[in-house]
Amino acid sequence: MWMFAKRLVLVGMLVTLSPRTDLVSEEERVALDGVGFHVELGVLDAAAGSIRAAVQEQDGRELGELPGAAEEYGEDVLATAMSEFCEHWSSAIDGLVSDGEEMAEALAASAASYREADAAAVEVLRQDPAVDAVDG
To answer: Which of 52, 67, 133, 34 has the alpha carbon at shortest distance from 100?
Structure first.
């Protein structure tokens, strides 16, 4: 549980920090610049992949199974408290898993959108737009 939360925090920091050259290989280091933004597509992809890995590691683990049989505690109050604790945190982890899945999807979709916009811009500029103005 804590490892999953730590990974999400680290990935969040990765996305908000200045560009890190050690996160992606040289061939994956594609940067797009525009008015008011700078995006490194490899960093978006790496962040999405890291979040997906953390989610997959945690998904399917249930804390509800952790407490065991009530008889093992000796006291009903203790067994109930442990069961309620595990149920609460199991629900919280499910929420984090869901949020992580959404974050990974959003990062991957953002990278895809930037790639599509870049490809469209490349198509527009296949020929120098000033050629007709100079020759004309």
So the answer is: 52
pTM above threshold 0.85: no
Tokens standing for 133?
């103005």
Q: Identify the residue whose tokens are 């990062």.
A: 107
Residue 47 is predicted with a pLDDT of: 93
Give the pLDDT of residue 10.
Answer: 47
**Looking up tokens 């994956």, which residue turns up?**
28
> Which tokens hold the place of 20?
């890190």
Cβ proximity of 45 and 28 under 8 Å: yes
Name residues whose C-beta falls within 8 Å of residue 48's C-beta, 6 or more positions apart in sequence. Answer: 103, 104, 105, 107, 108, 111
40 vs 73: CA distance, rounded Å = 53
The answer to whether the CB of 128 falls within 8 A of the CB of 36 is no
Q: Tokens 């919280």 — which residue? A: 92
